[in-house]
Design goal:
By secondary structure, this protein is α/β, with parallel strands linked by helices. The chain folds into two domains: 68 residues, no CATH class; 239 residues, Aldolase class I (TIM Barrel, Alpha-Beta Barrel), CATH 3.20.20.70. Helix content is 34%, strand content 13%. Helix 13 links the parallel strand 6 and strand 7. The radius of gyration is 19 Å and the shape is globular. The chain starts with 13 loop residues before the first helix and ends with a strand. 41% of the residues are buried. Bound molecules: pyridoxal-5'-phosphate and iron/sulfur cluster. Iron/sulfur cluster binds next to loops. Pyridoxal-5'-phosphate binds next to strand 2.
Length: 334
């Protein structure tokens, strides 16, 4: 295990850091010394899906490098305005899988709760970029119908908190929700899908660790790391108390053109994840969402990359290469 020495800096709270995030292409490119690359089509793309990134994450980008793989994930591109065959607004069929307020039911035994509408960063390839979160998420104090439905359905043993990003919820709201879920006898597992620790490690505060440590539900945190440079000593320090509390740490990433579509990067990522106590879980083939066609890696190339990873990595560090097919009863291996 890497000993992540304890932090001595007295930083601002995570909610304040969210407020102070960057919100326009001008601001971000200026921050990175790249204003010459500013293009009015970026603003048009941002009008469809706003730019949003934390300063912490922007600080991981290479100043002066327009092709930086972290920058590519968040900077609106004129190419988002192009249409492409097969790329739609709801590629995963989430709109039809909505099962009552704030919930998606697609797979047996698991229910996915849209716990929050927002994210700390907006990833340009996100399959939920057109999803009507505001209409689907559960508003403050309105967990009741959802909890009633879960109480009445004993086929569900695992709850997945997703979003948006569920860790955008304050600890007090999260504590209430997790507490209520813990009272539903047939639930066994709680899974949280979040990118927040990766883009704002300070989110993993003492209160959050306590909530996950205290529930009787067995907890898994599935992070979303796409590139080895997103793994930092700060993130390592933030995750240590979670691992110490017995919370299983997994990672899912998305295969993205010119971000991580090289076997070397993927192998590095998987090995480095293990240094951080995180096991690779899924490597997703891109969901074909409108505006993200320029991130697509061809299936043949995806299989080739995965084949090389299989040769170079121990079995337990090889993520499953999958894609989501609307209507399928599980994620589909490629
Ligand atoms: C991905 C997903 C799950 C979880 O699937 P696992 O294979 O268990 O990780 C559950 N519900 C929905 C709607 C999903 O998209
Ligand atoms: S849901 Fe995940 S992938 Fe989509 S914008 Fe939020 S953090 Fe990024």
């Amino acid at each position: 295990m890497i000993p992540f020495s304890s932090s001595t800096t007295n930083r601002k709270g995570w909610q304040q850091q969210l407020v102070e995030g960057l919100r326009s292409a001008v601001e971000l490119l200026d921050y990175l010394g790249l204003t010459t690359f500013l293009d009015s089509h970026m603003e048009e793309a941002a009008a469809r899906f706003p730019l949003r990134v934390t300063r912490y994450y922007a600080n991981l980008m290479e100043r002066g490098d327009f092709d930086d793989p972290l920058l590519r994930q968040v900077l609106p591109s004129p190419r988002e305005l192009e249409t492409a065959d097969g790329f739609t607004r709801d590629p995963t069929g989430d709109l039809t899988a909505r099962a009552g307020p704030g919930m998606l039911r697609k797979y047996t035994g698991r229910a996915l709760v849209i716990a929050s509408g927002g994210c700390a960063i907006n990833c340009r390839y996100c399959f939920r970029r057109h999803f009507p979160y505001q209409a689907s998420r559960v508003g403050p104090g309105a967990w009741k119908p959802l909890l009633c439905e879960l109480t009445g359905d004993d086929t569900v043993s695992e709850i997945i908190l997703s979003g948006g990003d569920p860790l955008m919820l304050s600890n007090s709201r999260l504590e209430t929700l997790v507490g209520e879920l813990g009272r539903i006898g047939h639930l066994k597992r709680l899974r949280i899908h979040s990118r927040l620790p990766v883009v704002l490690p300070d989110r993993v505060d003492h209160g959050l660790v306590e909530i996950l440590d205290e529930t009787r539900l067995k907890c898994t945190l599935v992070l979303h790391v796409n590139h080895p440079r997103e793994l930092t000593p700060e993130l390592g320090r933030a995750l240590e108390p979670l691992a110490a509390a017995g919370i299983i740490l997994l990672n899912q990433s998305v295969l993205l053109r010119k971000v991580n579509d090289a076997p070397g990067i993927q192998v590095d990522l998987c090995e480095k994840l293990f240094d951080y106590n995180i096991l690779p879980y899924y490597l997703h083939q891109l969901d074909k969402v409108e505006g993200a066609a320029h991130f697509l890696v061809a299936d043949a190339r995806a299989r080739e990359i995965h084949g090389i990873m299989r040769q170079r990595l121990p079995g337990y560090l090889l993520p499953r290469l999958v894609r989501e097919e609307p209507g399928a009863d599980s994620k589909q291996p490629l």
